[in-house]
Amino acid sequence: MRILITAGPTREYIDPVRYLSNESSGKMGFALAAAARRRGHEVVLIAGPVCLPTPKGVERIDVISARDMLKVLRDQFKVADALVMAAAVADFRPRRRLRGKWKAKEGSGKLNIELLENPDLLKSVARRKGERKVVAFALETSEGKRRARAKMVAKNADFIVLNGVAALGGDRISVTLLDREGNEFEMLQRTKAEVARVLIELLE
Ligand code: CTP
What we know:
By secondary structure, the chain is of the alpha/beta class. The chain contains 5 helices and 12 strands.
């Protein structure tokens, strides 16, 4: 198969040196790319800004913002057999990116940044996915399974991987895999490489 994987955070710039982002390390997406390649698949990895080496034999495309990622994703999804959306896409971006450094008025005690909602990347590409298989990720702090199921359906994914916040940056994770038939599969305290291999086998 030709498997498309997104990984890492996105970065939404306020000015040339400041941005909004999140804690995603990219490790899960990179582990998925390595696992897919090891099992003989063709792999395209769309990576947000992370400091990780490219797994051997993987084609990597670096992006910065959610909208950059959407452009590449649209192109690459056309020629993919499956998509694993492990990236932690920023839900909002500053309304404008200033050309020069933002000079706030000192002494006013507060600042407002106007944010605009980013497009939902997965939803927009998976809407017409046909036979292609799609895996979403969800990171929830409460009511995890219910919320994850709702996301899987809303985003038209075939599977969703439910993580807790402990997954961020960690090497061992506990995840619950949910599918459209109502099945649940739990993996406790596994390395990201182990979880990645199971997910790729599931896609196969
Ligand atoms: N995702 C996406 N585009 C976005 C936000 C999220 O494609 N703008 C994808 C993520 O890559 C992940 C899945 O959607 O596979 C779930 O993301 P999540 O942020 O948990 O969902 P949201 O709909 O943003 O919900 P919440 O407000 O709870 O964060």
